[in-house]
Amino acid sequence: MTDWTVIAARIGTATGRPFAPRTTRAVGGGCINTAMTMSDGARAFFVKTNAPARLAMFEAEAAGLAALAATGAIRIPQPICWGQTDTLSYLVLEHLDLSGPARGAAAGRQLAALHRTHSPTFGWQRDNHIGSTPQRNTPSTDWVSFWRDQRLGY
After folding, report:
1. What are phi and psi of 124, to 5 degrees?
2. pTM of the model
3. CATH superfamily of 3-102
């Protein structure tokens, strides 16, 4: 089995519907991952891959996306599944069509709404990554301290 066959089977398991992609196409997706779209003609998925050792990075990204989606403020691609094959780690996301002139304005309004959400602390429940750089998220009740210690100073 190829990595793509394994990933397609896991998409089928996660969605409850068999998935047999007819096209797999490379797309832009960041500086440290390989990004692809996989489509069977009816459904499409965005797939990020990296070395097997990067699985924790994808697990944290899936959790972060779920937390952002839970705010209800911004349309976030739903994580479908993540894991490892023999040669890579992967994260499969819902494919979102980001084209069209109105998309940018809507995304801007949603991003502004996201930044109006409140939490009792700054930070998050787990550390994650910005690209390949670890990002500490130790919660703090003081924004200046959090920004200084967890973003600028780290």
Report:
1. -155, 175
2. 0.88
3. Phosphorylase Kinase; domain 1 (3.30.200.20)
